[in-house]
Every structure is written in structure tokens, then in C-alpha cells.
Design a protein that fits this description.
- This protein is of the alpha+beta class and about 140 residues long.
- It contains 3 helices and 6 strands; from the N terminus they run E-H-H-E-E-E-E-E-H.
């Protein structure tokens, strides 16, 4: 298995809470940034999804906080798709300091919504394969 896709992000001062920790909601923003960066890396642009009449949706997200992050910390946020049968897929992500310390784990369940029918598409993998210039980036 290849290493998961990662993107480096620096924790900015305005993202911290009154205790100086990275605010809990910002972990979600960093995870979302990594997911969109992976899509671009694999050759899928937001415009491509819209042209096909689909959009990614998040159905469930879990964050496990392991170590605190503070302003100025640099982190590598990973992103890997885990495919299951059916309409949904899992996304597994980690947030690690550059020294390798695990700061958080983010797991989610997602799907692709048909934007006209407002329902999940039957097989999201076929859309990823069709749109991606590198389906391997998505574990396909």
C-alpha cells in the first residue's frame, strides 16, 4: 500500500482558542482542505464534479484529539479513501506534527450526491474513476 496523500498546514494564531490550542472546529477545516487538495492531486476539480452533476457530501465525522496544537505548529494532514460496497465510502485522516507526533485522527463517511435528484449516487467509485487523471490517488 502506498503512503496516504498529505498536505502541510501551519496553525495560525487566529485559529486558536482562549487556551492557546487549535480550536476544535478548525480541525474540520484542515481535514476539508486536505480532502480538496487530494481531489486536485488526483485530477478532479470542483468544476468537474459540478459538470457531472454530483457533489461530495459528508454524512458523519469523528475527531479523536491526541495532542494539542498551538499557533506556529506545522502539521501534515493525510487523506485516504477506503471504499466499501454501496453508496458510501470512508475517509481516514491524520493530523501529525512534523516530528511525527499524532495530534488528531479524523474519520468520516461520505458519498457523492446527484445534485438534480438530491440522492446519493449508487456507485461513487465509477465517478471517481471517470473524472480522475490518477485514480490510484483515491485507492482505485
Amino acid at each position: 500500500m502506498t503512503e496516504p496523500f498529505t498536505v502541510r498546514i501551519q496553525v495560525r494564531g487566529y485559529e486558536t482558542d482562549s487556551q492557546g490550542h487549535l480550536n476544535q472546529s478548525v480541525y474540520l477545516q484542515h481535514a476539508e482542505h486536505a480532502r480538496w487538495a487530494l481531489l486536485q492531486h488526483g485530477g478532479i476539480r470542483q468544476a468537474d464534479l459540478l459538470a457531472k452533476g454530483v457533489g461530495p457530501v459528508t454524512l458523519e465525522t469523528t475527531i479523536r484529539y491526541r495532542r494539542e496544537l498551538r499557533a506556529g505548529d506545522e502539521v501534515d494532514v493525510s487523506c485516504a479513501f477506503v471504499w466499501t460496497e454501496g453508496k458510501t465510502f470512508r475517509i481516514e485522516q491524520s493530523v501529525r506534527k512534523t516530528d511525527g507526533t499524532l495530534a488528531a485522527e479524523v474519520t468520516g463517511v461520505g458519498g457523492l450526491m446527484d445534485l438534480k435528484e438530491r440522492r446519493l449516487v449508487t456507485d461513487p467509485r465509477e465517478y471517481f474513476r471517470a473524472l480522475a487523471s490518477d485514480p490510484r490517488a483515491f485507492g482505485l
